[in-house]
Amino acid sequence: MARIPIYTPAPVTLTQSFPIMNIDPTTGINSGMSWNQTADFYVDKHKILSVGSNYDADAKEFSPVRTVFIEGMLAPIYVTDSYNTIKAYIDSKDCNDLCTSV
Question: 16 is in which domain, residue-wise?
C-alpha cells in the first residue's frame, strides 16, 4: 500500500543573505562582493530540499553563505545559517512518523 507524506507544518526562520557588489566610488571598479545585507526568511522546514556551499569564482574562495533550495521556488536563496543546521531540518523528515497509508 502506498504511503503518502502528510507533514504538519514546522516553521523555522533562516537568515537570508543578499550579495552586494562593492564598487569603488572613485574608479567605478568592482572590488569584490559582500554578503552583509541580511533579512529573516520564514519557511516550513519540510519545504527545504537541499543545502550546499557557495563558491565565489571571482574571489576564488567559498563565500560565507550556504545555498538553499526551497520547494516551489525557481531560484535558490543564500543563508548565513550553518550547513549542519539546515541539514538537520532536511534529515528531520521521517516518513515513519509523518506518512499515512492509503
Answer: 12-94
